Automatic annotation (TrEMBL):
Its main location: membrane. The keyword Membrane applies. The chain crosses the membrane at residues 168-187, 193-217, 229-251, 257-276, 398-416, 428-447, 709-730, 736-757. It comes from Prosthecobacter fluviatilis. The lineage of its organism: Bacteria, Pseudomonadati, Verrucomicrobiota, Verrucomicrobiia, Verrucomicrobiales. This is Heavy metal translocating P-type ATPase metal-binding domain-containing protein. SUPFAM superfamilies: Calcium ATPase, transmembrane domain M, HAD-like, HMA, heavy metal-associated domain. It is a multi-pass membrane protein. It comes from the Bacteria.
Length: 782
């Protein structure tokens, strides 16, 4: 049985023995205990949480929040009015998070706060002088939550159109049903209020058609104009046929043609299914904040050759530039995959995409404009939409031809046979109505929603609706190395060296490494874990190529490179070594087992890396990969070219840096770990949290279960349509029977999906704890 993290519930890597998956989770857990907020764990009710991201434990630049605070306080109508500000928040997962954020806000003296977990937004109000938003942001960061000004979707306002359509059409459907039921229960046609009942039902159906039906009609029309058959086409055909027949029946006094309640309810159910399908994806997209490594858009657009600019610590150099400072430390991991930092001197080249790994802002002169830069090319690259499913289009084309012919021929036959045009029209409309893919329109979104919830339990968050179909078509999985197969930071191999330090030394080591991007600093900071902050104001200076130093309490503290090869870094006080550290690149937990599992499924596994041959070879050897299964020293263009030449339509690419962006675009499916220093999670089909690769097998199991569920629903729908069309052609399908069959068929398909995922749960669920979510997911969605 694998150990489960005491804070988030994800697996604990074998390299840790403290019961936590990472130092961030340990830090937050200890802080909750110290602050008397243990109720947080009772409120989360056994649900798994995302692991605390490493960037939440490091120094953040809140200059943007200071500016926004001043603007909010300056636009108040009077001194008595509270200032208000809306921000994005990263790390929300359940009601326990909202409870915790509200407690922190109240503790610091805020006036009012609203947290929207579905949009990932936080709106706060405060009285100036009594509350500091920056202090609030820093306090939230201690608990693992990050605030940001822009959303991960590029700052676009949230689109609530589908939600509004669904809610309004739900009200129209209830009205239409309420005023149609009396006729089903024997209300005489000459009843005084019967015409008014029909009028209200007709008005409700008409409004539902305008508000909700137009959603499907527009999508079907745009698809047809593009030469593509979409699933919304038969949905639109059924809606329009039922509505047209209802209007004709109402105006001509033919009760057998009135489907007003069916029209409104059908539109509501289809919109509800589509909303469920998109909500999880939209929520996962909003979990991410804007990448802080990318400078502001205004600054980028103004960059031209010869312009002077600055780059803050942790930000990327946007364009190729010449350094004007005496020295600077930069990291090329975004460009080449090399995690080690390097030193540049005055006048030397800073490549576009290099990260400022130092502790100070660097100054440079641009050698090119933003539009010509490598980073712009990588950022501007966009993954194409889902490839056209030609098999589905062919199936839909045949389906529509059969349905239209069956309806028209059946209607004409009944008209000729009975001599009653209304009878023939009723048969034709009934065929169009019952043959609509209503079951698929409700059950398939439920399958998507449950699959996304199961993936979230594994620390994987879905961003595109087509992910599950893509995963079932895979033939190969391609990995970047640094930060993807390996941990983001090198592993400290002698953590016992830290235990010999006294509290003062540990505080100074934490102060030295806080906010520094050098891999050694990041690793040491994480290894120190949670500890009370003393707010040291000693300035940390960097000696490029040598290390970090600061003076405090009459002592000089430093992290530097040793003279001998027995260690990778040493920590000194007044020149005397307190401890020495050794590091190595470490694979993510269960990487070896997952590579074997993927190959056991018949998938090819490849590594494409920009790193040096020796480093890639060492990792490949640990993974038991053959020489032909890995490539080294590749540029971004070479990675993309390799993908394009090796079955891109059936390739999953997983990477984390800017040098993987073009390969992302070439592959049919892409995933990325969340490191806080990459923009790829914003364009991936899915992103994942945590330090383990365990999710890979589970993700493919979920995709297989999703496929079985969709196939079962499709099989039922085909059988249902054949039977109901035959019944309709025989003239036995009345509006009442159609109104009964539609929700009944949807209920059957929902039950099929729930049952298949419930049975598949034993395969998908890999954690030691029982699945406490799946039952609730199914009940709520149904």
């Amino acid at each position: 049985m694998n150990t489960i993290c005491q804070h988030c519930g994800t697996p604990v890597p074998p390299t840790r023995s403290d019961g936590f998956c990472c130092s961030g989770c340990r830090s937050v857990h200890d802080l909750l205990q110290q602050e008397g907020l243990e109720q947080f764990y009772d409120l989360k009710s056994g649900l798994n949480l995302p692991p605390v991201p490493a960037q939440a434990m490091r120094q953040q630049d809140y200059g943007w929040l200071e500016t926004a605070t001043l603007a909010a306080e300056g636009t108040r109508a009077s001194e008595d009015v509270a200032a208000e500000l809306s921000v994005s928040v990263q790390g929300l997962s359940c009601m326990a998070c909202i409870w915790l954020i509200e407690r922190v806000f109240a503790k610091l003296g805020g006036t009012q706060i609203q947290v929207d977990i579905s949009s990932g937004e936080l709106r706060m109000a405060w009285q100036p002088g009594k509350f500091q938003p920056v202090e609030f942001a820093r306090e939230l960061q201690r608990f693992g939550y990050l605030l940001g000004l822009q959303r991960a979707d590029g700052g676009q306002p949230r689109d609530n159109t589908l939600e509004r359509r669904t809610g309004v059409c739900g009200a129209f459907a209830m009205n239409a049903m309420a005023f149609s039921l009396p006729a089903y229960f024997g209300m005489p046609a000459d009843f005084a209020f019967a015409p008014w009942f029909d009028l209200v039902a007709a008005a409700s159906a008409t409004l539902a058609l305008l508000v909700g039906g137009s959603y499907f009609a527009q999508r079907a029309w745009h698809a047809l104009r593009a030469g593509v058959l979409h699933i919304d086409t038969p949905i639109t055909l059924g809606i329009l046929a039922a509505y047209a027949g209802s209007i004709i029946g109402w105006l001509s006094g033919e009760p057998g043609l009135k489907y007003f309640d069916f029209v409104a309810m059908f539109i509501f159910l289809m919109l509800g299914g589509r909303l469920v399908q998109q909500m999880a994806v939209a929520r996962n997209r909003r979990r991410l904040l804007r990448d802080p490594s990318i400078p502001e858009a205004e600054m980028l657009e103004a960059l031209q050759a010869g312009a002077s600019f600055t780059v803050k610590p942790g930000q990327a150099v946007p364009v190729a530039a010449k350094l004007t400072d005496e020295h600077a430390s930069i990291s090329l991991e975004w460009i080449s995959g090399e995690s080690d930092s390097c030193t540049r001197s005055s006048g030397q080249l800073l490549p576009s995409g290099a990260l400022n790994a130092g502790t100070r802002t660097l100054n440079a002169v641009a050698l090119e404009g933003w539009k010509e830069s490598t980073l712009h090319k990588l950022l501007d690259a966009r993954r194409g939409g889902d490839q056209r499913d030609l098999r589905l289009e062919k199936l839909l084309r045949g389906y529509l031809v059969v349905v239209v012919l069956a309806g028209v021929v059946g209607g004409l036959w009944w008209w000729w046979h009975t001599g009653e045009w209304a009878r023939g029209l009723q048969v034709m409309i009934s065929v169009f109505v019952v043959s609509c893919p209503c079951a698929l329109g409700v059950a398939a979104p439920l399958a998507d929603d449950i699959a996304a919830s199961r993936a979230a339990d594994q620390g994987v968050f879905v961003r595109t609706l087509g992910l599950w179909k893509k995963l079932t078509r895979l033939r190969q999985v391609v990995f970047d190395k640094t930060g993807t197969l390996t941990l983001e930071n090198p592993l400290l191999t002698n953590p016992e060296a830290l235990s010999g330090l006294d509290d003062d030394a540990r505080q100074m080591l934490r102060h030295l490494t806080r906010g520094n991007l050098h891999p050694v600093s990041r690793s040491l900071f994480d290894a120190l874990g949670g500890m009370p902050e003393q707010g040291l104001d000693a300035e940390v200076t960097e000696v490029p190529g040598q290390g970090l130093r600061c003076e405090h309490a009459g002592c000089v503290w430093a992290i530097s490179r040793p003279q001998d090869a027995g260690a990778d870094a040493i920590f000194t006080r007044d020149g005397q070594t307190l401890c020495a550290f050794r590091f190595r690149d470490a694979l993510r937990a269960e990487s070896v087992a997952q590579m074997e599992a993927l190959q056991g499924r018949g998938l090819r596994v490849e590594i494409l890396s920009g790193d040096r041959e020796a480093k890639v070879a060492a990792i490949a050897k640990q993974l038991n990969l053959q020489r032909e299964q890995w490539q080294h020293s590749l540029t971004p263009e070479q990675k993309a070219e390799w993908i394009s030449c090796h079955e891109p339509q059936s390739t999953l690419y997983i990477g984390d840096g800017a040098n993987d962006s073009l390969a992302f675009d070439a592959a049919s499916c892409a995933g990325s770990p969340v490191t806080g220093r990459s923009f790829l999670e914003h364009k991936a089909d899915f992103y994942f949290l945590g330090h383990s690769m365990r999710f890979m097998s589970s993700l493919l199991d979920i995709a297989a279960t999703h496929r079985r569920a969709v196939h079962a629903v499709f099989g039922f729908s085909v059988t249902y349509n054949i039977v109901t069309v035959i019944v309709g052609l025989m003239g036995h399908l009345s509006p009442l029977l159609a109104a009964i069959l539609m929700p009944l068929s949807s209920l059957v398909t929902l039950s099929l999906v729930a049952l298949i995922f419930r049975r598949g749960g034993s395969v998908v669920k890999r954690y030691a704890e029982p699945d406490v979510v799946s039952e609730a997911e199914c009940v709520t969605a149904c």
